[in-house]
Amino acid sequence: MTEADKKLLAEQAAWIGPVVEASRALLESMRPMPLCVVCPSAQWYRIEDEKGEKRLEAFCTEFRGVMYDHRRRGVTACDARTDAIEREKPSNRQD
Ligand code: SF4
């Protein structure tokens, strides 16, 4: 995790989900840290392989697919995230 990642986490803490919050060691080992870590459209989950190694992966509800797993490079810029955050503003919420 870079200094820029730490700054982004601090500034966008509202969008960190409970699985990521409970997986700080895995989060800190991400290089690069994907923008999906601080996105309201990311659904993070933790998996464990046959060797007992734990990993974080993320499903994106915007693109309807897994956008971060052990094979993928992390998303570093995303228009869909900007749109998702805009929709979450109280004045734009439909509920
Ligand atoms: S909208 Fe973009 S930043 Fe958010 S989870 Fe999907 S791919 Fe990641």
Helix share, percent: 25-40%
Structural class: alpha+beta
Number of helices: 4
Q: What is the total tally of β strands? A: 3
Low-confidence stretches: none
Work out the oligomeric state of the chains in this entry: single chain
Average pLDDT figure: 93
SSE pattern, N- to C-terminal? HHHEEEH
Beta-sheet strand percentage? 15-25%
Report the radius of gyration as a whole number of Å: 14 Å
From the N-terminal CA to the C-terminal CA, the straight-line distance is 36 Å
**Mind summarizing the main beta sheet?**
3 strands, antiparallel
As for the number of domains, it is 1
Order of strands across the main sheet: 1-2-3
Shape, principal axes of CA atoms: globular
Ligands: iron/sulfur cluster
Protein architecture, described:
With 95 residues, this protein is α+β, with helices and mostly antiparallel strands. It has one domain (3-90). 29% of the residues lie in helices and 19% in strands. The protein has four helices and three strands. Strands 1-2-3 form a three-stranded antiparallel sheet. The termini are far apart. Residues 35-36, 39, 41-42, 60, 62-63, 67, 75, 78, 80-81, 84 line the site of iron/sulfur cluster.
